[in-house]
Automatic annotation (TrEMBL):
Lineage: Bacteria, Bacillati, Actinomycetota, Actinomycetes, Micromonosporales
The keyword Hydrolase is annotated on this UniProt entry: yes
Protein family membership: Belongs to the allantoicase family.
MF terms in GO: allantoicase activity
The EC number(s) this enzyme carries: 3.5.3.4
Reaction equation(s) it catalyzes: allantoate + H2O = (S)-ureidoglycolate + urea
All copies of domain Allantoicase, residue ranges: 16-165, 184-312
Protein's UniProt keywords contain Ion transport: no
GO biological process, one term: allantoin catabolic process
SUPFAM superfamilies: Galactose-binding domain-like (SSF49785)
Keywords: Hydrolase, Purine metabolism
Name of this chain's protein: Probable allantoicase
UniProt superkingdom: Bacteria
Pathway: Nitrogen metabolism; (S)-allantoin degradation; (S)-ureidoglycolate from allantoate (aminidohydrolase route): step 1/1
Length: 325
């Protein structure tokens, strides 16, 4: 049931997600819900409103009703499950929560979102305090917003909305980073994830530090490490960016990139090149249409970001977008 937690968090601030409306934020701001970092807690840390919480917390209700937060997904897509994380909320967590979804174009104002016709995704369900509360979602449609309703009040640390990104082709240029998770690329296999998962390489923006990338353990044999990625769309690649930023004493010595389509064997895209620590390495390439790529690093080490710019096969993203409507 909880296999969906391995999928990207579509609501994450790392993708540009944000809280666009909350009816009450008396004790703690709803913006905390979409932070990509794990919640933290410092006991006996008080401000003028009480104990400081790394989450969204509303005041105690004295009238019937419920509290609501609306989240704009940073990566709109098909939602496979949600995680209502009540970490550190013990005597003040909501006893129940429900989740609804919405698909809209453009950038509607909060008042429009409040009055919109929402689609139920998770019925009113019991929550446990100081816990990750996982709920599977079966709706196959693409959503741009979710609404978290807590019954009647209380605190939630994080709202994770796990799913498959489905970009709107009308909002993409003719050539873009087809290895970006935000557009639907995904890691399909990897030799080693000891210090960091390779999905971090495919995240938006520059790496913040050495922990914000893929890093393998030290090899003591004659082998090498690798990661295989399914691209967001079949594409002809024209530009490769191998970024070792922050990796200074542990960058790979060399790297190669190969690719294949669903109907072809692996073929070289970028021959074996030397890598320099703490450096973005950029290369022009010409490739046939590929659906998968494999990055090999020799012998081991860390990579902050991998960017693969290419021109997708016409119609692929349009078909994918239409299937979710």
């Amino acid at each position: 049931m909880d296999e969906f937690i391995a999928l990207p968090d579509l609501a994450s601030r790392a993708f540009g997600g944000g809280v666009v409306y909350a009816n009450d934020e008396f004790f703690a701001a709803a913006d905390h819900l979409v932070l990509p970092t794990a919640p933290v807690f410092a006991p006996r840390t008080f401000d003028h409103k009480g104990q400081v919480y790394d989450g969204w917390e509303t005041r105690r209700r004295r009238q019937p009703g419920s509290d609501v937060a609306i989240v704009r997904l940073g990566a709109p897509g098909v939602i496979r499950g949600v995680d209502v994380d009540t970490a550190f909320f013990t005597g003040n967590f909501p006893p129940y929560a429900s989740i609804d979804g919405l698909a809209v174009e453009g950038y509607p104002a909060p008042a429009e979102l409040v009055e919109a016709e929402w689609i139920p995704l998770v019925a009113k369900s019991p929550l446990e305090g100081d816990s990750r509360n996982l709920f599977a979602v079966t709706d196959e449609r693409r959503f741009t917003h979710v609404r978290l309703t807590i019954h009647p009040d209380g605190g939630v640390a994080r709202l994770r909305v796990h799913g498959t990104p489905v970009p709107d082709p009308a909002l993409l240029p003719s050539e873009f980073d087809v290895a970006a998770i935000a557009y639907g690329a995904t890691v399909t296999d990897c030799s080693n994830t000891f210090y960091g998962h390779p999905e971090k390489m495919l995240m938006p923006g520059l790496a913040l530090h050495m922990g914000d990338g893929w890093e393998t353990s030290r090899r003591r044999d004659d082998g090498y490490d690798w990661v295989e990625i399914r691209l967001a769309a079949p594409a002809q690649l024209s530009f490769v960016d191998l970024d070792t930023t922050h990796f200074k004493g542990n960058a790979p010595g060399f790297a190669t990139l190969i690719g294949k389509s669903d109907k072809s064997n692996w073929a070289e895209i970028l021959p074996k090149v030397a890598l320099t620590p703490d450096t973005p390495h950029r290369f022009r390439v010409e490739s046939p249409t590929v659906t998968h790529v494999r990055l090999d690093i020799f012998p081991d080490g860390g990579m902050a970001r991998l960017r693969l710019h290419g021109r997708p096969t016409p119609g692929f993203l349009d078909d994918n977008f239409r299937r979710c409507h």
